[in-house]
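Re: weekly structure request thread

Next one in the queue (138 aa):
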Amino acid sequence: MTLRNLCALTLGAVLLAAAIPKLLDPPGFAQVLFHYQLFPEAVRHALALGVPWLELWMGLALITGRGRTGAARLALGLMLAFATAIGINLLRGHAIDCGCFGAGPARTAAEKLTAMRWEVLRDLLFAALALPLWRPEP
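Done, posted below.
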């Protein structure tokens, strides 16, 4: 298996794992987005409905290879947006649950802030997985 295929399969699986809980609970994801305090209500609800479907499409495209380059480019942007949104709240000292893979366990504010540091790093690593896929296959 090539590095390119390994990156595509890994990132695709991550996106599918992130999409499914959000697709099953759009109001819960909208509530998670509310806690970010970054989006007006109309945008928040549009994101809660649209982002999971986008993640699902990107995951399937990365795994199947159909539309892989476009999906990788979108995934890179999405992962950087996720890292930025979490990072903004981290800099604010605003402890949130990222909601990336659905509802997580109950945690204290200190535990959330620690987790957020790792989540920013994790999202940046996921973004790096998209880089080998940036160009169309030869």
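The two ends are 16 Å apart (CA to CA). The CA atoms of residues 3 and 74 lie 19 Å apart.
Next request, please.
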